[in-house]
Amino acid sequence: MMANSELTHDSVKQQHPISLYLKVWGLLFVLSTLSYLVDYFHLQGMLRWSLILLFMALKAGLIAAVFMHMRWERFALVYTIFLPPLVLLVLVGLMASEANYIFALREWFFSLPGG
């Protein structure tokens, strides 16, 4: 058996309190309930989709931070995992913007006389 002075950083196991996991589980339950209430109250339009995406992002962030233990990892690893999907989301946003522009341009072009 090793003496306390001989323990290395790798041999020490970190254990999180069960209360942390229960609190996160409760918060996920509340966020899921709020997400359900968006449909229950028949919200429509941008408000509906904004709330659904907000609750989805909050739940995904909580799951990644606590249950995937990203909160306790080095920033280099966290950036390596989360930066590529973030870049892809930016590119999807740019493509959606371009698609809206092309759609509006085609509507304008086909509405011209003789078009």
TrEMBL record:
It is a multi-pass membrane protein. Keywords: Cell membrane, Membrane, Transmembrane, Transmembrane helix. It is found in: Cell membrane. It comes from the Bacteria. Its main location: membrane. The chain crosses the membrane at residues 20-38, 50-70, 76-96. The keyword Phosphoprotein does not apply. It holds the Pfam family COX4_pro. The keyword Membrane applies. GO terms for cellular component: plasma membrane. InterPro entries: Cyt_c_oxidase_su4_prok. This is Cytochrome C oxidase subunit IV. It comes from Photobacterium halotolerans.
